[in-house]
Design brief:
A five-stranded mixed beta barrel has the order 5-6-7-9-8. A three-stranded antiparallel β-sheet has the order 2-3-4. By secondary structure, the protein is of the alpha+beta class. The mean pLDDT is 88. The N and C termini lie close together (10 Å). The protein is built from two helices and nine strands, in the order βαββββββββα.
Length: 139
């Protein structure tokens, strides 16, 4: 199985993560059979998307619902992580690194880091191609 020990955050789309299944030790197995490869074991992911809505406060440290073009996903703990410029408002395009909490019916992450990428539209335009290219080269 590729990546026996989970490494750094892996770039993924919400649609890819929705199909992941729970592995051992808090990891998730990202299926890659269509590419003729073994599942990729991961714990943390790098995702990008447009903020749809933000829920402030609460026991979860705030949450945000995002959309990456392949589907929606939720990020928990958004008020407890380094963010740089304020990025928690609807319409912003952000990068999120986080630990996967759930994959179905849609991905839920616990945020580690968030960054506002709204100023440069290239980030949004190239995201799906970046993810596709990465998954072509990960063994």
């Amino acid at each position: 199985m590729a990546g026996d020990a989970p490494g750094p955050p892996v770039k993924v789309l919400a649609a890819q993560l929705r199909a992941a299944v729970r592995g051992a030790g808090g990891t998730w197995l990202l299926g890659r059979a269509e590419a003729g490869r073994a599942p990729l074991r991961l714990r943390a992911v790098w995702m990008q998307g447009t903020v749809l809505e933000v829920e402030r406060g609460g026991a979860r440290g705030g949450s945000a619902r995002l959309q990456d073009g392949s589907g929606p996903f939720t990020v928990l703990g958004v008020e407890e992580v380094p963010k740089g410029r304020p990025c928690l408002s609807a319409g912003k395009y952000v990068m999120v690194m986080g630990v996967v909490r759930s994959c179905s019916p849609e991905p839920i992450l616990r945020a580690i880091k968030m960054t506002d990428l709204s100023e440069n539209p290239v980030h949004k335009n190239m995201w799906s191609l970046e993810v596709e290219d990465l998954h072509r080269v990960i063994p």
